[in-house]
Write a structure and sequence with these properties.
This protein is an alpha/beta fold. The protein is 28% helix and 28% strand. It has two domains: 8-212, P-loop containing nucleotide triphosphate hydrolases (Rossmann fold); 217-369, no CATH class. The chain has nine helices and 19 strands. β17 (346-354) and β18 form a beta hairpin.
């Protein structure tokens, strides 16, 4: 996956940015860039990367803008190392990738923060001079302030760059400035930015997904010895023979697994089944001491984006589910041919549904009773 075409034919550095670039060049550390959508965060990162690497600095570049990713497909956090050789080639591959499985951190804030910190720790172990972190455009309201202020506190960057139109980032900056070591630069948005509306952002995501899955093939993967996890509900899809027998005997239900989380029981049906009064749903609730039953039908998994993770939790590749055969414990999915199943330790499901061509589909909610 290519991130940025780092050629110098379109690089225009605004005058008020140059002094910041020079300050950053004179010190090692971490630079985090904040701003609303269309403020020029990626342009700032691109210009600064080119400026520093041209001056023999080695950069660890983290793309945490999961909705409009450049480094890796949407729904992931990517990290790439940029040196003079890669700058000369003009393309930056993904060296490390973490799966988020959502297109906005608002859907999984704490998980998102944790994974940004995880990839930041990896970047710190690389022999780089400067780490640059591009962030999402979610900066407004309580959610935006919580997200960005917590990222600042946990990462503790050397430099915080705020691209703001007016004073929209001040609630975040007040939090960030509690750490006296953080240098804060308030600057105007990039003057040459071309704004994108919702539809254009969706088209761009389709293009990024399509690029990632270009030349992919339908393949089968055996998960009989691999854990499948779903971050939406905190589920682990693990068969339990005793529970399977119980559901078949007492409730006339063919299931793969069942799991109680808080006041709900999640039931993964072995095959597509119509919810029947004969199942005695009230008896199931009483048996498990829950208020709600959530049935997950096989069709729920169709077109779901998921990640193959290694033992360190890093993604070794993404796939799109066609179907899951719970009896054979096999997933049929669409994978890039470059993805191998070596070092596979976990399968992680997201909440993004797409077609093989990258078109987005609505997320399916499971059946609730």
């Amino acid at each position: 996956m290519v991130i940025l075409n780092l050629t110098n034919d379109e690089l225009i550095i605004p005058g008020d940015w140059m002094s910041i670039f020079q300050t950053i060049q004179s010190q090692d550390g971490t630079v985090m860039v904040l701003g609303k959508n269309d403020s020029g965060k990626t342009s700032f990162i691109k210009l600064l990367t080119y400026y520093l690497v041209k001056r023999n600095r080695k950069i660890g570049l983290i793309d945490a803008d999961i909705g409009q990713s450049n480094l890796g497909p949407p729904g992931t956090i990517g990290m790439g190392i940029v040196d003079q050789k890669r700058l000369k080639d003009g393309i930056i591959p993904v060296d490390y990738m973490l799966f988020i499985g959502a297109l906005s951190p608002e859907q999984c804030i704490d998980r998102f923060i944790s994974r940004v910190c995880q990839i930041y720790t990896i970047a710190q172990k690389e022999k780089v001079d400067t780490i640059l972190i591009d962030t999402t455009g979610l900066v407004l309201g309580k959610v935006g302030v919580y997200l960005k202020s917590n990222l600042i506190k946990k990462v503790n960057p050397t430099v915080l760059v705020a691209l703001q139109f007016d004073k929209e980032l001040e609630p975040i900056l007040l939090e960030g400035e509690f750490a006296p070591s953080v240098q804060v630069y308030r600057i105007k948005p990039y003057p040459y930015i071309v704004g994108k509306n919702w539809s254009e952002r969706k088209i761009r995501r389709k293009r990024q997904f399509s690029l990632y899955f270009q030349g992919s093939q339908w393949r089968e993967i055996d998960f009989s010895e691999i854990t499948i996890k779903d971050f939406n509900y905190g589920l682990e899809f693990c068969p339990d023979g005793a529970l399977t027998d119980l559901f078949r005997r007492e409730f006339q239900l063919e299931i793969f697994s069942a799991e109680v989380i808080n006041d709900r029981v999640f039931v993964v049906l072995l095959r597509q089944q119509k919810i029947s009064p004969e199942w005695n749903l009230s008896q199931i609730k009483t048996h498990f001491g829950v208020k709600q039953i959530i049935f997950i039908q096989p069709q729920w998994f169709g077109n779901l984006l998921f990640s193959l993770n290694n033992s360190e939790g890093l993604s070794i590749g993404l796939g799109i589910i066609k179907n899951i055969d719970w009896e054979r414990m096999q997933i049929t999915a669409y994978f890039p041919i470059s993805v191998t199943f070596d070092n596979l330790a976990q399968i992680e499901l997201g909440r993004v549904r797409i077609k093989p061509d990258g078109s987005e589909l609505s997320y399916l909610e499971p059946e609730r009773y």
